[in-house]
Amino acid sequence: RREAERRQEAERQREAELRREAERQQAAERQQAAQSAERKRCEAAADQQRLFAEAQARMNRGHGNRQAAQATTNQAGRQDSAILVLPSTLGALIASIEAAHACPYRCLQLQPHAGREQVRKRHRELCLRLHPDKACGHPGAAEALLC
């Protein structure tokens, strides 16, 4: 009889220990989920700040480019202010395209108000200059062509 009571007591203790272990595991999972959610919130906030900073920088660069284009247009008396001058060297052209990868007009070295025909002409001109057969294996030509 005492042996049976001891076995029952041992069984109760094992069950209690299993319950405590399950509770600890659930608490650890809840804590891990909370940490994961907090990490995601922090990453989202960091992404938002990064995107805001990039947008601000693009806006500032665009404003500077607009001022420079207006000054050039006013000084030269050019009527076609939508077209910017392409860099003369292939390396400078590729660097300018890679720097402006987020804005298609800047990749084409055009102002945002450029017409459809100007976009077509500039795209064709860049494709001809950056084509792998013409660029003589320049390391960034293929990436710039795909911009």
Q: Descriptors for this entry?
A:
Helix Hairpins, single chain, DnaJ_domain, 2 domains, mainly alpha, 5 helices, 75% helix, 147 residues
Characterization of this structure:
- By secondary structure, the protein is mainly α.
- It folds into 2 domains: 80 residues; 66 residues, DnaJ domain (Helix Hairpins, Orthogonal Bundle), CATH 1.10.287.110.
- 75% of the residues lie in helices and 0% in strands.
- The chain is built from 5 helices and no strands.
- The longest helix is centred in the first third of the chain and has 75 residues.
- It starts with a helix and ends with a helix.
- InterPro entries: DnaJ_domain (IPR001623), J_dom_sf (IPR036869).
- This is J domain-containing protein.
- It comes from Haptolina brevifila.
Secondary structure: elements and pairs:
Elements: H1 2-76, H2 90-99, H3 104-107, H4 116-130, H5 141-146
Organism: Haptolina brevifila
Pfam families: DnaJ
InterPro entries: DnaJ_domain, J_dom_sf
